[in-house]
Amino acid sequence: MGQIVIQQSAPGFELRHFEDAGRNDLALYSNPVEARAISTYSDAGEFRPLKTAPTLRHGWRLQLPDLESLRTALDFFYPAMLGSLLSHERNELLPVDLRETLGRQSGMYAVTKKITDPQADALIETVCNSAHGCLKTILWQIAPDRPVTSLPAEKFNPAVSQIPAALPVLPMLCAEACNLLVAAAREVVKKVPVAE
Q1: Looking at the domain 89-191, which fold is it?
Q2: Side-chain half-sphere of 189: how many Cα atoms within 13 Å?
Q3: Strand partners, 6
Q4: Angle at 66 between CA 64 and CA 68, to 5 degrees
Q5: Span 4-79 CATH architecture
Q6: Quick one: DSSP state of residue 47?
Q7: Which of 85, 146, 159, 163 could make an SS bond with 142 (beta carbons 3.0 to 4.6 A apart)?
Q8: Where are the domains of the chain?
Q9: In sequence order, what are the residues at sequence separation of 6 or more whose Cβ sits closer than 8 angstroms to the Cβ of residue 161?
Q10: Is the CB of residue 92 less than 8 Å from the CB of residue 70?
């Protein structure tokens, strides 16, 4: 899930950064709540405002005794992602297109309604791409008749891992544009010169 490899280990599970798979020099943790501290800052010590960004720090392994503690830890690493996946599997997770999300904005974010489709596509490519933006699989479109065209098809397929690893994946699903994308849309629209 995300940048985490989950392995069964007697009696429970072990989690670590997928790029640390072969390392034996990792700091050991055993409380699922410690996932919160592990996931708060990047390797460079920078705060991670988006937990699904591909900036999870390295150098740790988390030993957990049972499925309940695994669920708790994953919720700290990637809040709400297990619940979203379960809802998706039950066909209860309803994607909300970008136009609908922006249509609900008010106050200083009401201006986001003016973003054009090409501007939205370019912005989504920057904010949502898996390489440096977000590891979620996108389920929404720009509008019901307008898909996002600036990202590869794999970004919209829950069966495809968003990290460069050939591992089975528990996808993290994006059913609606996040507040970071909405805030970035505001900046894009504000930069456009106003016609007089």
Answers
A1: Alpha-Beta Plaits (3.30.70)
A2: 18
A3: 15
A4: 105
A5: 2-Layer Sandwich (3.30)
A6: B
A7: 146
A8: 4-79, 89-191
A9: 167, 169
A10: no
Structure tokens at 29: 């943790």
d(CA 65, CA 12): 4
Whether the CB-CB separation of 29 and 62 falls below 8 Å is answered with yes
What gap in Å lies between CA 119 and CA 141, rounded to an integer? Answer: 14
SS3 28: strand
Angle (deg, nearest 10), helices 67-77 and 81-89: 110
- Which structure tokens are listed for 63? 């030993």
- Distance in angstroms (rounded) separating the CA atoms of residues 106 and 122: 23
